[in-house]
Amino acid sequence: MKTNANRSFYMIPYYLWIALFVIAPIALIVYYSLFNISGDFTFANYQNFFSSVYFRMTLSSFWYAFLITLISIIIAYPTAYWLTKTKHKQLWLLLIIIPSWINLLLKTYAFIGIFGLYGPANKLIEAVGLSKQQILFTDFSFIFVAVYIFIPFMILPIFNALDKLNPALVDASRDLGASSWVTFRRVIFPLTLNGVKSGIQVVFIPALSLFVITRLITGNKVITLGTAIEQQFLVTQNWGMGSTIAVFLILFMIIVMMVTGQKDKGGAINGKTK
């Protein structure tokens, strides 16, 4: 009984943190979503969210988040696999993670210079005999910069999953006559799927709410849920509609986390199988 009492006492800071910085902000967002721009109580914000404008915006946000996540997986998985085979894998992993320590705004401004009409990207295009291209303010620039920013967060969980994979299972598959592709499809990928799911969570969910990149790289030509929230709060001053969009964004995040949730039913632990 005393042990349980002590455990409950030590959990008090955790409960306070959750109440103050998770539950309270969400409750405040839900509260503001029930008022219009004039401060009158209404459910009109929720009705407006299901209009064609916000429906298209939501589909657009999911589409861009899907593309960013898919491209990140395509690049991250072979990269993580290669890292596990290198001699100094921790050093290489550190070099990949270091750019994520740089401020997001600084990296975004750097790409404005890189993709500008007189930047290195256009100088390279001119070097191969082509005319200058408007790279900024395009879907390509937005997806490229977003993938660059999120790729370390996709590589890390996949690398951890691959690094913990019991190599005896791969050797057994090959000894039984399986090809490299069959081994990957039947052994390697299923056993590292939790790493992929973790990567999807840390990339797809933030990609839904991007707004700094959409403003600076695309000039707000790409509208996401995050961009809409920013505009409602800072431009139109309609906190009620901004809060309503934020409520649905939170719901979408919860759904994504539930879909990509990890369900361990066995696997390798410390190089041994259960």
TrEMBL record:
Please list the residue ranges annotated as the ABC transmembrane type-1 domain: 58-260
Top-rank lineage group of the source organism = Bacteria
Per UniProt, subcellular location reads as: Cell membrane
Q: How does it sit in the membrane?
A: Multi-pass membrane protein
- List the transmembrane segments: 12-34, 62-84, 91-115, 135-159, 199-218, 238-259
State if Membrane is listed as a keyword: yes
Q: What is its main location?
A: membrane
Keywords attached to this entry? Cell membrane, Membrane, Transmembrane, Transmembrane helix, Transport
The record's PANTHER family line, in alphabetical order, gives: INNER MEMBRANE ABC TRANSPORTER PERMEASE PROTEIN YDCU-RELATED, INNER MEMBRANE ABC TRANSPORTER PERMEASE PROTEIN YDCU-RELATED-RELATED
Please report the name of this protein according to its UniProt entry. ABC transporter permease
Protein species of origin: Planococcus shixiaomingii
